[in-house]
Amino acid sequence: MPILEQIIQKGEALFSFFKWLENLFSNIKKNKGLLFTTLSILSVVGIFVSLYFVSFLVDDVAKKSFSSEQRKYSQEMKLIINKEKDFVLSVAVTSKLDSELIDIYKDQNITADEIEKKYEQISKKFTQELNKNLSRKDISVKFYTEPKSNGDNIINGLVVTNTGTFFQAKMPFATKDDTYLKVDITSDINYLKDLYKKENKDFIYIVNESSTSKLDRLVFKTYYTKVSNQYIIKNTVYSKETIKKLQKLDIKQLLKDGYTKDRDNFYTANKLYDVNGDEIGVVILSKKIDDDSIVKLVKSLVNNVTMVALGLIVSMILFLF
């Protein structure tokens, strides 16, 4: 009966294994040194396994906390950029209500050159008043006429011009013969730097090198500095210290992960696109890691848990001795 023989053989093998295991434990019990060594190894292994899982959980919490901060900063940045787009658009729409502009445009007794001169004066007045009332310096208002062949599209969004990057709202609001009367409102993107400063955050805008062809060559050579192979920054807006920190950052990795941190700062990054949907640069938000920041709290949690776990290991080893 081969099946019965196989069962008997397996039973004998299992019995032999248990007998060997029993003898092993018996020998370990008799040998105090071996017993102590075995228990020590098992205890240390158990502690280190526990430490690994604790560290894994803490790291996971840290990553989720940093990702949450990154999403919060990203949403905040998008909201502020959209508000600035809405602002220049509202200024453009409001300025269209000035009847004097249309009266000048429709006046048959004024030459085209005289119209342009009047619009230049009015544009200057609008610009000065607007900046004064809003305590700003970056807003520009321009009224002008343009041939109908150039189109009547409404533009609202970010644009890179020969002097820099701006929020722009441009639209026609009157027409006659073969021309349009248009309004063009712009505000400098670097105004947001001052806005974020009030929130104790640093707003840093770096330009994609593919956009440098739109900049005036003299402006590019005079006012811009390279921070990586792909990005440049306006050196009259940001300090040398900030530029040096950026040059040390792995911007490609920062964009991939969405955030990074060093000893002093927590960084998040988002790409920016112009009115045509082309990438023009990257906004980096930097927040100093102070005692109240979530980054500092998470770092403190990681360090404290690690120290407690190491303390447990040392205590257990001393107990075994």
**How is the main sheet built?**
6 strands, antiparallel
Looking at how many chains there are and whether they match, the oligomeric state comes to single chain
Q: Which sequence of strands runs across the widest sheet?
A: 6-7-5-10-9-8
Report the C-alpha radius of gyration, rounded.
35 Å
* Secondary structure: number of strands: 10
The SSE order reads: HHHHEEEEHEHEEHHEEEH
**What is the overall pLDDT average?**
81
* Unreliable segments of 5+ consecutive residues: none
Tell me the distance between the termini: 57 Å
The share of residues in helices is: 55-70%
Determine the strand fraction and express it as a percent band: 15-25%
What shape does the CA trace take? Answer: elongated
Decide which structural class fits the backbone: alpha+beta
Number of helices: 9
Keyphrases for this structure?
Beta-Lactamase; six-stranded antiparallel beta sheet; alpha+beta; single chain; 321 residues; four-stranded antiparallel beta sheet; 9 helices
Q: Overview of this structure, please?
A:
There is one protein chain. By secondary structure, the chain is of the alpha+beta class. Among the domains are: 86-188, Beta-Lactamase, CATH 3.30.450; 189-305, no CATH class. The chain is 56% helix and 23% strand. It has helices at residues 2-30, 32-95, 99-106, 112-134, 191-197, 217-223, 240-248, 251-257, 294-320; strands at residues 140-147, 155-160, 165-176, 179-188, 201-208, 224-226, 231-234, 259-261, 265-273, 279-288. A six-stranded antiparallel β-sheet has the order 6-7-5-10-9-8, sandwiched between helices. A four-stranded antiparallel β-sheet has the order 1-4-3-2. Helix 2 packs antiparallel against helix 9. The protein is elongated and about 120 Å long. The relative contact order is 0.12. The mean pLDDT is 81.
